[in-house]
Amino acid sequence: MLKGAIVDEAPISVSFEMRARSLEKGNAPMVFTNVKEAPGHNAAINILDRKRLCEYFDVEPGELIDILSWAMNNPTDPKVVPSSEAAAMENTMEKVDLSKIPIPWHFAEDGGRYQSASIIIAQHNGVRNTSFHRQLLIGSDRTVTRLVPRHLRTMVENAREAGEDVPIAVVNSPDPVVLLAGAMSFDEPIDELMVASALHEKFYGSPLKLFELPNGVMAPANAEYVMQARITTQNSDEGPYVDITGTVDDVRQEPVIEYDSIHHRTSPTFHALIPAGREHMTLMGMPRAPTIKNAVSEVVKCTDVYLTEGGCGWLSSVVQIEPEGPEDGFKAINAALDGHRSMKQVIIVDKDVDVTDPNRVEWALMTRWQPDKDTVILSNQKGSSLDPSREHDGATSKIGMDATVDPSLDKGPFESVL
Fold it and tell me: Which residue segments constitute the domains of the chain, with CATH numbers given?
């Protein structure tokens, strides 16, 4: 995934300079090889987006969404290898010191240095969960992590009732399929690493390789960094943090993580994701696209889904369908909103409209949509915690717009010559 990235050999600090350098280069993919605070460690930003992923895997966007959906339904067992065969174990820090790896401080508004692209693999009482959780650096061997009310938070709460820590692996820069799987969320308990293994077989021709850390947690063998740690029974202040919406999230009391060992490849590259950037939106939004597409496909043929940058990769999408009846657009609206309940806006378009092109989507609205006839507005709906405009009780309103042509009509003036 680093192919084609700008290699920047000039000295750079983890404090504010990576994002500034990114802005200077138009937020192009970049690798920094001379990080002042972390000699021998590189840092990468802006590496993952929809276009680069499709080019890397040599697939079309709609095909990639279908493959993600297939992997959700066909998880496979990873291959367990000895730790001696794990590239992530090439080096071990003599003394744990998180400040010596390129954990960035991107925004002055943030509470400090944050690792936002690292995934947490947790195992407790025979259950494994893999997911993204931002971590604020609060000491050489301690972070505090934001846990939203999902699987890992429940796991931690159950462990705390028994007075126990949760053993974890913190992984940075694994294969991109691990990142995509880690960003998925499921209604039923599914092992994300088994989904990642299915994707690994599909794209690389072999299952994902895992190895076991001394704390019993399995981790990807080929990651750049694998860190052994524990989610403790202690809490501390987490935040403020510039979130995916570009707005500042609150300070909360959240669980403290204590690190026991840090392993990494030789000359490793740390994934220093910039919050609210395209990469952040890709990792948030792309794994939700299969869920939306599956939901819409139950009522009408759906060919593509894109969670927009303007919607922060989470709150708004454009859905491409092949309608067969005049009500198919409305069916697609309702199905899409049910498929991703955090979403507050959806636009339905025909197959001749590129869902990633905001000008083309607006063109479809202006030439194919009548606000009083082709709009669905829903009030008092459950909103997303990421939406700063939601009501105090978490409620929001939602809107769907049908910008498709009624297939029963002779297209006439609706047909594009562009």
Answer: 78-266 (2.30.110.10), 284-405 (3.40.1670.10)
